[in-house]
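I am still getting used to C-alpha cells and would like to learn alongside you. To get us started, please write out a protein record for me. Once you have written the record down, we can walk along the chain together.
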Amino acid sequence: MTESFRQFLERLRGCGELVDLRQPVDIRHIATLVDQAKTALCFHNVVGYAMPVVSGIIRSRERAIMAMGCQTYREIEDKLRQAIDHPIAPKPVASSPAREVTMTGEDVDLYRLPIPMSSIYDGGPMITAGVVIARDPELGMNSGIYRFIVKEKALTGIDIVTPNNMRLFAERAYRRGEPLPISISIGTHPFEIMGSGFRAPLGVDEMAIAGGLRGEPVALAPCQTIDMPYIADAEIVLEAEILPTGWTWPEGRFGEFTRLMGGLHWNPLVRVKAVSMRRDAVYYALHMPWENTWLAAPTRYTAIRQALRVAGVRVHDINVTLGGCAFWHAVIAIRKQPGEGKNALLAALSVMDLKHVVVVDDDIDVNDPLDVEWAIATRVQGDKDVIIIPNARAKPLDPSLPQKSGIIPTGAKVGIDATIPEGIPHEHYERITYAYAQTAKIDDYLRGKADRVGNVGGDAAIAALAADILAMIEAEPLYYTEIAERLAAYDFQTVARAVGHLHVTQMLWQDARGKLCRRGSRFAAIPPAA
C-alpha cells in the first residue's frame, strides 16, 4: 500500500475521522481535547508555535483498521503475520523532504517543536511518536517507539527501563564507553509505527516488517551528523546519541499504557545533534494510552498464535483483553486434546510480558467475560488447574511490582486451565437449550399466534399411548421432549399421563445420558452399588 503519512491524514479527513481546528489553541489544552474528541484532531494554530499538531490518528479501533488498509480488526493480525513471514528490506534513498529545514549544533532547539504536555503529573513535555532506529556493530538493526522527555533545548532522556533490544544496544555501548547513535523519526505512517512496535528477535529488522505491512520497501535516508538512517517519509527527524551515562537520570512521570500514571524512571540521557524537518512540517503527538493500544494488541495476537503453533496447539480464538491493557491478559480458546490446556498455558505465558492467561474450550466465547468466568467457575479446580510461575520476566511498568532504582524486577505469571477436565463426560457441560426454541417465537405470539389444541385421551387411550411410547423407547432411548414432539397430536397432559403409566407399571428407566428407556433393556443405566 503506497501511502504517506500525509496521505493517510487526508484519507482520515475524507472519512470524517480527522477534524481540523483552525482557531488559536493553547498547547497545554491539546491532550485533554483529544481525549474528549470522537475523531482525530489537527490543531493548525497552536499558540506560540509555527507548526500544526495532529493527534489521535490511531486512537480508535476504526482508525487503526483504516491505518492498516484492512476491513476488520482481525485482519490486522493476519496482515502482520504475513509481514513477519515475508519481510521486505528497506531501500536507501539519497534524501527526503525532511531535509528542507535543518538545525545543527547550537541552533538545535527542541523548544521550537510543539511538544504537548499530557497529564497533570507529567515530568515535562515528551516526544511520544518517535520511531527510533539504532545499530549494534554485532547484533544488527533495531527499531522501536520510545519516549523522550525534553530536559534542555538539545537534551532529552529516553525511556528504556524495560528489557528490550534497544536497551541491550544501549547497555553494550555503555560498557564500551561509547554513545549509541540513534535517529528519531516523528510523523510517520502507522505502518512504520506498528512495524517498530513489534518485538522482533535480535537480527530481525523491524523496518523490514514495516515493509511487509506496506507491501513495498520503507525508504530510509541518511542522517547528516551520525551514521544512521531515518524514515524518509517523516515530518521531523532528530539525529541524536544515547550518552553513556547509564540509567542514572530521573525521568517521568507520564501516563502509561496501563491507564495509570507511571512512576519515576531512571534512564540515560540523549544528546540531540541535529533537527531537520519539512518546510511545512506537522508534529504528531501520539496520545496515550489508546493510540498505543489499538496497534500494539495485534502484535500480541500474532506472537501468541505463533507460540501456540510451535507447541502444536490448535487455536480456535484469542482475546487480548482491554482490561489487561491489551498487554498483560489473554483468553485463548483451543480445540483441545488431552493435556493441551496446560501446554497452551505454558506456550502463551512465554510470550512477551503476558502476565495472566486463561485457556478455555472452543465452546466458550473469549470475548464474553461472563462466558469466560462461567468456564472458570465450572471447569477449574485450583489445586490442579492454576499454574503460578514465579520470578519470570516482567514489565517494570507493572504497578504491582516494587520499583528499585537500577534493578529490573521479575514477577509471577499465572495460568488458568479452564478447559473441561480429562475424565469428565462432556455431557456434564451441555448447556440449557429450551425446547422448541427454533419453532416457538415470541414475536409470533405477540402478533396473535395461537397453538392448536391436541387430542385429550381417557384411561384407555392413555394406556394405548403408553404402549406406543414403550415401543419407541425399546427401539432407542428418547428424551422426554423427543417423545412429546413425536406425539404432538396429543395434548401434553395426555402424553405426561402415558409416560407416568409406564412408571407406575415399572417399565420405565433412563440411560446414562438421561434419556427414557425400557427398564432392564441394554440401554438402561446401571444403578450404583449399595
Notes: The domain at 311-427 is CATH 3.40.1670.10 (UbiD C-terminal domain-like). The CA atoms of residues 88 and 208 lie 5 Å apart. The two ends are 74 Å apart (CA to CA). The chain has a mean pLDDT of 91.
